[in-house]
Amino acid sequence: MQGAIASLSGTFGGDVLHPSDKKHAVNAFRALSMRGVPIDPTLVRSLAVRSGWEPEAADRLAEIAGRISEGRIVRGGDRLNQTAAKKLVARFETVGD
Question: Which H or E element spans position 82?
């Protein structure tokens, strides 16, 4: 999980307001979910704040994570298959998960 947050922080510096930034976040959490990685929105928020995200931005990221962990629909991401999800999660592991 930490690698995913670090990757997102490096990509767009700590928020998901822009559609392309939200897309990266949605894809990240979908990939984690598809690979069976438990997603804890509270942990997501905490890791985001520790990575320099403003609290309100971390709340937005945690909301996306929570919706995906609950199996709810979140618009803004790509349609991922298991191969794409595996590759994305592997990238997070090299960042520091």
Answer: helix 82-95
- With a cut of 70, say whether residue 11 has pLDDT above it: no
Q: Please, what's the largest Cα pairwise distance for the chain?
A: 33
Q: Which of 88, 14, 12, 10 is nearest to 48 (CA)?
A: 14
In sign, the C-alpha dihedral spanning 18, 47, 78, 72 is: negative
Number of structural domains found in the chain: 1
Integer Cα distance of 15 and 63 in angstroms: 12
The pTM of the full predicted model, rounded to 2 decimals, is 0.86
Rounded CA-CA distance 81/34 in Å is 9
The domain containing residue 41 runs over which residues? 2-95
Give the domain CATH number at 9.
1.20.1290
